[in-house]
Write a structure and sequence with these properties.
Strands 9-17-16-15-14-10-12-13 form an 8-stranded mixed beta sheet, with helices on both faces. The chain has a 4-stranded antiparallel beta sheet with strand order 18-19-23-21, with helices on one face. Helix content is 36%, strand content 17%. A hairpin with a 2-residue loop joins strand 1 (2-5) and strand 2. The protein has 511 residues and is an alpha+beta fold. Helix 13 packs parallel to helix 15. The longest helix is centred in the last third of the chain and has 28 residues, at 398-425. It is built from 15 helices and 23 strands.
Length: 511
Amino acid sequence: MGISTIGRPVPVVRSGHVQLSILLRESDKSTLQNQIFDQIRSMILNGQLRGDDPLPTTRELSNQLGVSRNTAVLAYERLIAEGYIRTKPYVGTFVSPDLPDTAFLSSANNGGGHAAEPAAEDEPEPVAPGGALRTHRLADPDRRRLVADFWVGRPDPRSFPLKAWSQHIKARLKTAGSKLTSYNDPAGLLELRQAIAKHLAPARGVIADPDQIIIVGGCQDGFNLVGRLLVKPGTTAVIESPCYQGAAFVLESLGAKLHPAPIDHDGLDVSRLPHVRDAVAYVTPSHQYPIGVTMSLQRRIELLSWATQYDAYIMEDDYDSDFRFVGSPLTALKGLDRNERVIYLGTFSKCMGPGLRLGYVVAPRRLVDSFRRMKMLMNNGQSWLEQAAMADFMASGEFGRHLRRIRQLYRERRDALLNALAKHFGHCEVFGDQAGMHLVWKLPEGLPDAAEVEARGLTAGVGVCSLATGSALRFDKNDGGDRLLMLGFVALTEKEIEDGIARLAGALRSS
């Protein structure tokens, strides 16, 4: 059996016993590499291709489809970047055994044809507990081979205060006694909660008693803790559009009905909030994820007023508020809250490293007992040793010095990225460059969309992120998000940043 590609009949692509029925249409507005990507991805998602199934080489694919090898390479690079396929040196290319987007596998819903595309840009239907779960993306280990990877949310491993941290770990081990062999307070080590409360008051304007603080395994653990307390099937969950997948998918998994509200240059559009009671709102006001804008003070006041009027709770994710490069940061929502409607979530993942699995939740006083009981049900608390070392690191003043050092370092790298973009692309419209660990570049006319730029960058050894790759969830297909490129800069040296942007510019010029 043959298929037609760009008007010419060619053989069906074969790799061992696997048949890839790929149909390329000249009339399709999508590029050839995108058509190949979409169709192979669909075969994987609907089960036609399964984990570890072999795939044809890019040379075989290009020969049999009658397209350039570079077209096949671009399609494969994007499939690799998004985790659908993987290569084994000197062996071949195979379907990944750990597939993303497994929640979308459903032959019953697509009639046995191509798998339905993920509804990442449409409002998702609420998912009852026990139903199919969607998960956010983590960095692909294969990206380590890239010359420069502008992955978002990853701190610089070379800046970790290893010497001081090692000293605190060793000191605590010497006096650990039974603490390593006993259960501890599920809410967290009191010394660490005291240190966090002392840090938050001047840094974020949040006045909290240590008893209000619950130590968690990063913000994702915090989302689950808050969600299990406040969300039941049918609860309205307000989220920013676009927003961070990790939070939205947790709320969705608990049965919440997601209510996306758009953002603009002042942050969340409060006028689009629902007039319902007992809702939950998830926001990132200090450095909106993914766009990077800061919610204005007026919007913050309006959001708090809405929460008070409708008995709603606000989940404030302050994930990278330690890095403000221009002016002073606005007081956190929690610091403005006079009616105990805000639940504050912070993390050490961005300033220290996600491998420590340490974060914290500041609960309203009336919910403290409920939070403590729920934390006990979930996991009986975090590792004592890491909590103790972090408490000592903060109490010694080394944490403050570490923040000041890396804040300056990250600012220099932010400047290097802005300079490199201007050098190779001229005037660039960017968002979120005043704070945080990434910025967003609005691609100008004349350049391809973000997914295509991402694919060409990978071919040149440069990793950049479209919103989808950067774990952002869109609900409006016409919001211009396909022209937005996320660029994390803190894990790269200034030279790596310059080399990476130069390579990206070369790849876009030569295509």
